[in-house]
């Protein structure tokens, strides 16, 4: 699937008509869509669901009537269909059939979880009401029992803990929707800028990488902005590290150390036993850093590589 996804909130999205038309076209596929559409069309969305967003994941490569295609959406609001004072709730989770199996709903859920602490400082958990078995567990939710819905029916309730960091630096799993911020960070860090190449580091290249490695790329944020990042991925046997960097204003605070620890932990969960990274010989800071992180220097190997694309240099 050749796709480039952008995350938008319906309420600040400029082309609401296109979204409504695409939802309408999907309404045969899921019975809850007509109800959601009625809330959007008669303006009662916030009255029914309280404060919150309707997040959209749009495919910019595939156009529908000349507009980005609606691939996945969900609501992240004070309420859903359960009579309760708990909040917030993720609801109306839908991925278009052509996009299923690519972890798209998971990307939007991560976005909600990453913003939950700032939006709901009083809350301990994000909730979902669903009768699906095994789905929300995949996204880190736990089943906590059944509650009555506003329709008077029993519904399964799942919750996921909101991570509250004590320092002002927060950490999150990266998704393709973070590409613009990453690109800007990489270009502000000299040693990383030097390692970028015009094919693999495009939006398309990074999206492809993150789709193959959805759980092992991390960012550090301050005030909601990405200030450090690490990409790691594996081929089923070995893991490799790419583009670890921390914005110069945030270096020597232990951010890279934490990013590396998070990546290592995630890779271990995937059963990976060894990890490596390439470091320019003249990058003293990074060589000193990796030594401190316990990464030994192999001197009995030659690094051999071959480019399979004329635009990707092999280096000296
Ligand atoms: C290398 C880099 C990622 C380190 O990020 P950081 O967040 O500052 O690192 P941390 O604060 O987690 O450092 C952990 C430890 O590494 C060592 N270290 C980090 N930066 C160092 C430096 N400039 N000189 C010497 N040691 C350093 C220190 O021991 C440090 O702990 P300490 O300061 O408490 O003694 C950062 O300097 C960077 O972004 N450099 C440019 C991009 C780059 O070269 N990336 C690596 C590509 S392989």
Descriptive keywords:
316 residues; alpha+beta; Aminopeptidase; 7-stranded mixed sheet; globular; 5-stranded mixed sheet; binds coenzyme A
Strand percentage, roughly?
25-35%
How much helix, percentage-wise, in residues?
Answer: 25-40%
CATH third-level topology of the largest domain: Aminopeptidase
Could you say which small molecules are bound to this protein? coenzyme A
Class derived from helix and strand content: alpha+beta
Count the DSSP helices. 10
Q: Biggest β-sheet: count, sense, barrel?
A: 7 strands, mixed
The topology string of helices and strands comes to: EHHHEEEHEHEEEHHHEEEHEH
Principal-axis shape equals globular
How confident overall, as mean pLDDT?
A: 94
Contiguous runs where pLDDT drops below 50 for at least 5 residues:
none
Write down how many β-strands occur, each being a DSSP E stretch of 2 or more residues. Answer: 12
The CATH homologous superfamily of the largest domain is termed Gcn5-related N-acetyltransferase (GNAT)
Describe this structure in words.
The longest helix has 16 residues, at 104-119. The chain has 316 residues and is of the alpha+beta class. It is globular and about 70 Å long. Strand 9 (218-222) and strand 10 (225-234) form a beta hairpin. The chain has ten helices and twelve strands. It has two domains: 5-161, Aminopeptidase (3-Layer(aba) Sandwich), CATH 3.40.630.30; 169-292, Aminopeptidase (3-Layer(aba) Sandwich), CATH 3.40.630.30. Coenzyme A binds at residues 189, 191-192, 244-246, 251-257, 277, 279, 283, 285-286, 288-289, 292. The site of coenzyme A has 21 residues, from helix 7, strand 11, helix 9 and helix 10.
């Amino acid at each position: 699937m050749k796709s480039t996804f952008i995350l938008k909130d319906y309420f600040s999205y400029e082309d609401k008509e296109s979204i409504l038309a695409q939802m309408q076209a999907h309404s045969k596929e899921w019975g809850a869509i007509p109800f959601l559409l009625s809330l959007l069309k008669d303006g009662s969305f916030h009255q029914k669901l309280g404060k919150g967003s309707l997040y959209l994941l749009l495919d910019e490569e595939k156009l529908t009537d000349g507009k980005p295609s609606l691939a996945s959406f969900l609501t992240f609001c004070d309420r859903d269909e359960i009579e309760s004072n708990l909040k917030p709730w993720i609801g109306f989770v839908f991925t278009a059939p052509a996009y299923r199996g690519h972890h798209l709903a998971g990307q939007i859920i991560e976005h909600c979880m990453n913003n939950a602490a700032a939006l709901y400082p009083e809350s301990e958990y994000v909730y979902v009401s669903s009768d699906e078995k095994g789905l929300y567990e995949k996204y880190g939710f736990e089943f906590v029992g059944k509650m009555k819905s506003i329709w008077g029916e029993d519904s399964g309730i799942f919750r996921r803990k909101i991570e509250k960091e004590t320092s002002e630096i927060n950490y999150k799993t990266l998704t393709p929707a973070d590409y613009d911020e990453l690109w800007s960070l990489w270009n502000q860090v000299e040693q990383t800028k030097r390692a970028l190449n015009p094919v693999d580091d495009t939006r398309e290249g990074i999206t492809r990488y993150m789709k193959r490695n959805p759980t092992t790329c991390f960012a550090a944020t301050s005030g909601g902005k990405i200030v450090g990042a690490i990409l790691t991925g594996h081929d089923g046997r070995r893991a490799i590290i790419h583009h670890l960097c921390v914005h110069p204003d945030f270096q020597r605070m232990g951010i890279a150390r934490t990013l590396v620890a998070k990546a290592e932990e995630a890779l271990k969960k995937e059963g990976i036993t060894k990890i490596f990274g390439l470091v320019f010989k003249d990058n003293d800071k990074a060589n000193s850093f990796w030594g401190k992180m316990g990464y030994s220097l192999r001197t009995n190997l030659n690094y051999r590589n071959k480019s399979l694309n004329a635009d990707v240099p092999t280096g000296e």
